[in-house]
Structures are given as C-alpha cells and as structure tokens.
Amino acid sequence: MRNAPEEVFDLECFLPYLLNQAAEASSRSFATVYRQEFGMSRTQWRVMANLGKFGGMTASEICQVSHIEKTKVSRAVSQLQDMGYLMRSRATDDKRRENLSLTPAGQAVFRKLGARGLAYQAQLAAALGAERLAELEAMLQQVRALHADMADPV
C-alpha cells in the first residue's frame, strides 16, 4: 500500500502571504494619490483616515484600530500637526492623555481623499466586476471576523 503523496507548502497559495501581497499592491497603488496630491506618507494617511472616520481619538486608540506601531503614529501625528491637518487637546478627565482631531483643513483633505478612494474603489469594481468585488469584500470581512478574538502579538 502506497502512502499518499506529501503535500508541498506553496507560499504563493498561503492565504496570509496572498492577503499581504494583495494589500501591499493595492496600498502602493493608492499611495500615489495621497503622496502626489498631499505629500503624505502611508502612516499619515492612515492616521488621518481613522480620525476622519471615527472623529477624535487618542494615539493609543489609533494604534489599536489601525495596527500601526506607536512610534510611527506619534511621528505621523506630529507631521500632520505641522501640516495644519491635525490638532491636539488635553483630555478633561486625564491630563496625561491627548485627544487628536482633524482641523478644518484636515477635514477638507480627508473629504478629497475619500472621494479619490471611492474613485479607486470604482476602478477595482470595473476591473473585477462589481459582484466579484462585493464577494471579495464579504469574504475578507469573514476572514477578519474569524480572527477577531485572537490577541494582537504586538
């Protein structure tokens, strides 16, 4: 009796690798928009996007929801403040904590980048087909939900 052939690990078919490659490729593609038009880094855009979506947050909260290292968030916060897009204020309940929020200029940039993001999403829908893109989004939401209870190793 013969043993079944040994299955060979193929990195190109390994879901975490494939997800990372797809995420990097799409992030690099969209990066041209915020880099060329607003001179922002990826981290600056991600900080701004979270503040634009959720409103006022602390740096720690941004780290939690975006999975960005604290030092990178701190640097991006300072740079966005220097650019006039972000403001800091002391929390009333804890003077050690700073609340971060977008300035009116930051909100305007967020709206412009949001519109560009919608256009980018429409390009993806045209290339993949709207139904297939919706299926992909649903599957990615499921994958994320499957791993939601896992502790973040950082």
Please give a structural write-up.
By secondary structure, the chain is mainly α. The protein has a single domain (37-146), classed as Winged helix-like DNA-binding domain superfamily/Winged helix DNA-binding domain (Arc Repressor Mutant, subunit A, Orthogonal Bundle). The chain has six helices and two strands; from the N terminus they run ααααββαα. β1 (86-90) and β2 form a beta hairpin. α2 (42-54) crosses α4, α3 packs across α4 and α5 (104-128) packs across α6 (130-146). It is globular, with a radius of gyration of 19 Å. It starts with 14 loop residues before the first helix and ends in an 8-residue tail after the last helix. The mean pLDDT is 90.
Q: Gyration radius, to the nearest Å?
A: 19 Å
Q: Determine and state the CATH class.
A: Mainly Alpha
Q: Structural class given helices, strands, pairing?
A: mainly alpha
Strand order of the largest sheet: 1-2
DSSP E strands, number: 2
Per the CATH scheme, the topology name is Arc Repressor Mutant, subunit A
Q: Secondary-structure element order, as H and E?
A: HHHHEEHH
List the helices and strands and how they pair.
Blueprint: H1 15-38, H2 42-54, H3 59-66, H4 70-82, E1 86-90, E2 98-102, H5 104-128, H6 130-146
Antiparallel strand pairs: 1-2
Which labels suit this protein?
mainly alpha; Arc Repressor Mutant, subunit A; 6 helices; 154 residues; two-stranded antiparallel ribbon
